[in-house]
Design brief:
Elements lengths: L18 E5 L4 H12 L3 E6 L2 H10 L6 E4 L8 H12 L2 E6 L15 H29 L3 E6 L3 H4 L6 H21 L4 E8 L5 H4 L4 H8 L14 H8 L10 E4 L7
Parallel strand pairs: 1-2, 1-4, 2-3, 4-5, 5-6, 6-7
């Protein structure tokens, strides 16, 4: 991933034959991202809490050399070993796409308790820092350039809707963290960016969200609809590729016009 991409190169320029780690891979967006990386010629480690689902996804991806792993990312003490295993399985790793997240909706803010806060902060924010660091340090120690793509949400800017204040507080933290990590690892040629999706057709969006509330949100989207997971994946592959070789510290808004900044 050292040479600059040319306009004639495909979306995943520089990713062919390289290793990519995708977390939250068993979900609709995660599986779309994993598929997009595989289509670009990368060897994918599909990681999810559900190891069986990860393995099934890995077996279904185009190309060869994909691996499915299962782990609880809340256990941050295991991140260094996790990255090592992924690197050994499909290496050399050059990109991390970190999608894994937890949402606990509480439509009445008085119902948010410490367990709700901790569950979301531990997976969404704390685990993001420690996994990013483990990945970047592995690459830096090897003298290898690479890219990290974290997942935020439109809620980092809006504050969130539908009982998701705590979730979106963590997503705001990811934006700030991404900028700090981008500055930290730029001297090692490791780029760190984020994607902020709007409404995407997934179980997380529909879970415990009344139909009238969802419709009210859709009405705020200029393109007038919910995104398909496959519409988010190309942004991730782009940020991980050589086409984005001079982009770091950015949060890319993919919201159908819901956010404009």
């Amino acid at each position: 991933m050292s040479a600059a991409a040319t306009p004639a190169q495909p979306l995943g320029a520089g990713l062919g034959g390289q290793g990519v780690l995708v977390t939250g891979a068993a979900g609709p967006i995660g599986s779309a991202v994993a598929s997009a990386f595989a289509a670009a010629g990368a060897r994918v480690v599909a990681l999810d809490l559900d190891e069986d689902a990860s393995r099934t996804l890995a077996d279904s991806l185009p190309g060869d050399g994909h691996v499915g792993l299962g782990t609880d990312l809340a256990d941050v003490a295991r991140h260094d070993e996790l990255v090592r295993r992924a690197d050994d399985a499909v290496g050399p790793l050059v990109a991390l796409a970190h999608l894994a997240a937890v949402l606990r909706r509480r439509h009445d803010i008085r119902e948010v308790d410490e367990a709700d806060w901790d569950a979301q902060a531990d997976v969404n924010l704390k685990a993001t820092f420690f996994l990013n660091r483990a990945f970047a340090e592995r690459l830096r120690d090897a003298g290898r350039p690479g890219a990290i793509v974290n997942f935020s949400s439109q809620g980092w800017w809006t504050g969130g809707f539908g009982g998701s204040i705590v979730y979106n507080a963590t997503k705001g933290g990811i934006v700030t963290m991404t900028r700090g990590l981008a500055r930290t690892y730029a001297p090692a040629s490791i780029r760190v960016n984020a994607v902020a999706p709007g409404l995407v057709d997934s179980a997380m969006l529909h879970d415990d969200l009344p139909a009238h509330t969802l419709q009210g949100l859709v009405d705020q989207v200029p393109l007038g609809r919910i995104a398909r997971p496959e519409e988010i994946a190309p942004a991730v592959v782009f940020l991980a590729s050589e086409h984005a070789s001079y982009i770091t510290g950015v949060t890319l808004n993919v919201s159908g016009g819901w956010l404009m900044y």
